[in-house]
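Q: Sequence in, structure out?
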Amino acid sequence: MDIVSDTASYCAQFLEGNNRRIYQRIIDNCRQISNDVLKRDYYIPPTFEEMAYLEYDGTGNIAIHRTQAEFCTRGRRMDAVIGRMRVRSTPVLHLAILFDNSDCMTAWARSEMLEQEIRPDSAPLIAAKIAAIALLEGIRDAETRLFITFGSDIEVQREIDHNRLLAADGSGCCRLDLALAELLRMRWDIRSGERHLFILTSMPPDTGTGVLLDDIAIQEASLVYMRRMVRQGVRILYLPIFTQMDLVDMRVGAYTSRSFAQRIHELGIAVSLIGRTDTFVPALRFGIKQMLQHRV
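A: Exactly. Output:
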């Protein structure tokens, strides 16, 4: 059994009863997955080049205009001579993860939709938990970290509780639009520095009412919100989890899971499909690499 399958099994066991030993195994495994995905030459934080002006130390170039300005204010002194050099800096990072905790992510809901038993460890919710914890454990140098769960409503967590995340069992409809709108309301998309947004979900947004126009409205709203973020320079990785392929082409509103992911890709957003456990790490690695290569 590979590490992802092993971790999925532990996550399913954790839902049956909060066991400290199982919890620690999950966290340790997610850290190992994070190491495979992020640390082995795949995750390189973006940098930018800027001009630095410092007191001249005898090497490099003198900034003539800056030096003249210093002479005017401080007099002709050696410590008023200003040098210049190009330096590379790593911008501050703002991390946000949107986590789909709707019922369509769960084994029990999928069992009803497919009229066959779906094991808890093969539900999208379990894969989403593993991916979320791996990302949170791997990207610890972010200046701010936001974790937003969405179902019929949203919950914003600044202090991330892994125990609470692992105990989540999904309920309600998939209101991705509310989670994206909350980020915009917080003006997260215009914070200075790098902004990385990960979206863990499975099916297109829906209202749970079964009204076609309502579902289409929130799906289009979600696309509009993502397009706005892209224009603000936000790097987005959309991670649809397709563990039951029979549901990939089921239409919800205007889209199927497949066509909604394709529509997001057309917006210039990185998309990487998570399916079988043996392709989990390569899919996450490929998605992150694709996200970082996108021009903003």
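Residues 3-44+91-293 form a domain with the Rossmann fold fold (CATH 3.40.50.410).
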